[in-house]
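Dear Dr. H.,

I hope your travels went smoothly. While you were away I took the liberty of generating a structure for the chain from your last submission, since the lab meeting agenda had it listed for discussion. I wanted you to have the full record in hand beforehand rather than looking at slides cold. The sequence, exactly as received, is reproduced here:
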Amino acid sequence: MTPNIFDIATKELNQDAFITWLLKFADPKFQTANPELNNCGKVFIRQLIKKQLAIFEDQITKVEAGRQWENIDVWAEVNDKYLIVIEDKTSSSYHSNQLVRYKENAEKWCEQNDYAKPICIYLKTGNESQTSLIHIERQGFAIFSRLDFINLLDEFKDIENDIFTDFYGRLKRIEKSNNEFENKLIKDWNGSDWQGFFQFLEKETEIKKWHYVNNPSGGFWNAVLNWDYWDIYPAYIQLEEGKLCFKISTDPEELEIPKDITRGEIRNKLHNLILNQAEKFGFEHIRRPDRFGNGNYMTVAIVDRQNWLGADYQTIDKETIIKTLTEYVNFLKKIINIQKSGM
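The corresponding predicted structure, in token form, is as follows:
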């Protein structure tokens, strides 16, 4: 495989540049310069607009596009009538209230310039949980996903242009890597496999969220399966790549710890409850963590990877995994509901 510029230049700014480049090619003045890219750019614009304006059937007669207007990653003016604003993401996600602010700025500009309501797009070529994407849609942004982009570029895969070919090829490899977890030995899993696995889980069963946790130890992908309460304390199961962890939150932003009890005492009480009940209900693989923490979020018991996902030289059995995870979540819900009064 020849070197790919987008494998080397992986930052979001470089993806911004490709998107802007393709939008610019949609202007009719580039039809003779490169008819295929011009047509691809026009289809791209139509697909973006139809994400929020399904009845759009206008001919594309004029396109201007650029980057970093009011901190918005990419913008395009179409036919002196429509403004498209794109928040472009690879692996990162939105933060604070940036999407609300971008939408308000775009609406104000459109009103001042006699444009239709802005088309607000959250373009994501990496992975993000459905919980997060639903929240983004509630803020008025439509999702243009990696698969949306691949399906678009598939229509024009015969375009002979190095920039186009490199971007298209990289997206295809990311998508392929994302789906390899199904047939890959568990010992060889990496971040892409965990993301693909968590996406599978959220389609098959209810989970609260999944995301990457960046920490001094190197970080990990995690999925929170439930969020229930043991008295005032959130108690939940979190998959931390290999480990299935029973956890408790004492985060002061979520609750106020009574003055007559310490974090360690809270942790130990739930630990003892889980292990005692695990023996009673036959959950033989639940064990004590190698060490206890004393922070806002504490692991009180764990199940090792081979006992819920599979052994190193196995591939996953998806049906069995869903059944096993459901049993662990139901077990935790049952014992904390029965013994809430034991605090």
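Two observations you may find useful: DSSP finds ten helices and eleven strands in the chain. The first strand starts at residue 63 and ends at 69.

With kind regards,
E. W.
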